[in-house]
Design a protein that fits this description.
CATH architecture of the largest domain: 3-Layer(bab) Sandwich
CATH class of the largest domain: Alpha Beta
Number of strands: 14
Oligomer: single chain
CATH topology of the largest domain: Hsp33 domain
Radius of gyration: 22 Å
Distance between the termini: 48 Å
């Protein structure tokens, strides 16, 4: 199975962009890593598919984090990715077994720009917000873009359709083109047909769009990659040691095993090693 890719196109009138995400390899990898089952994984899958196309709006060396704290139903979803196409994500609790149609809670959007130590954060309130509307809400509030996401029911693929802002030529405003909903209705059958085929080959997908007079802009590989390390785990436990004693943390054991929530990698931490590090 080829690596997942985010492919970007523009229509010939240059009034709409389409970001097509072929996510079968990524979803396959996440299914192996995360022990989320049943309807919970269906929600996890739909969330990842709908959020990954936001990568198309990242600038060079920019990092992006999106954190959903849902109160009703209760769960936490985290997705972190960078402009290079690396992504890590998790859904908690792993026993979550719902595929909610509406969510009440808060979405925190965090962007880290090159050369800046502090991230830009924005909060978006969700009040019985439909799951499929969350991405459109993010793009509208944080990016001022009119967009809609379409997720395939038959393949791990999706399409993000965005209406571009109107431009002016010779101080004359261009006549208003069709609305986003009208444009999607015109192209719904074509988009569904491409996704229903479940094509994993980027060249085939690109050719399908070119046949419909779309201009191919660029493609980007999207893959799961976690930046956890044993050193980071050690630093995390050292921070914990400022609130709890070493004995409390290790519970009379010589070592403990910690696990990264994102990639599920286990790290064994030695009590003596940690004690020596704290002393120094």
């Amino acid at each position: 199975m080829k690596e997942s890719k985010l492919l970007s196109f523009i229509n010939k009138e240059k009034s709409f962009t389409i970001h097509f995400f072929e996510g079968q390899k990524l979803i396959h990898d996440l299914a192996i890593i995360h022990d989320v089952k049943d309807k919970g994984f269906s929600y996890f899958r739909d969330s990842i598919l709908s959020l990954v196309p936001l990568n198309a709006f990242l600038k060079p060396n920019e990092n992006f984090g999106l954190y959903v704290d849902s109160e009703e139903p209760y769960f936490k979803l985290k997705i972190e990715m960078n402009e290079a196409g690396f992504l890590r994500t998790l859904l908690m609790p792993e026993t979550f077994k719902e595929n909610p149609s509406e969510i009440t809670g808060i979405v925190r959007l965090s962007k880290i720009f090159p050369g800046q130590s502090q991230p830009y954060n924005s909060l978006i309130e969700l009040n019985k917000t439909k799951t499929n509307d969350i991405v459109a809400k993010i793009l509208d509030i944080s990016y001022q873009l009119n967009s809609e996401i379409i997720i395939s029911e038959n393949s791990d693929q999706c399409v993000l359709v965005t209406k571009l802002p109107q431009v002016k030529i010779d101080k004359e405003e261009i006549l208003e083109n069709i609305s986003l909903k009208e444009y999607i209705l015109q192209n719904q059958q074509f988009l569904n047909e491409v996704m229903d085929k479940g094509i994993n080959n980027s060249d085939e997908i690109i050719n399908s769009f070119k046949e419909k007079d779309f201009v191919y802009l660029l493609g980007k590989q999207i893959e799961f990659k976690c930046n956890c390390s044993r050193e980071r785990m050690l630093n995390g436990i050292i921070s914990l040691a400022s609130q709890h004693s070493i004995e409390e943390i290790f519970e009379d054991k010589d070592n403990i095993e910690t696990r990264c929530d994102y990639c599920k990698t286990y790290y064994q931490i030695d009590k003596k090693e940690l004690t020596d590090l704290i002393k120094h």
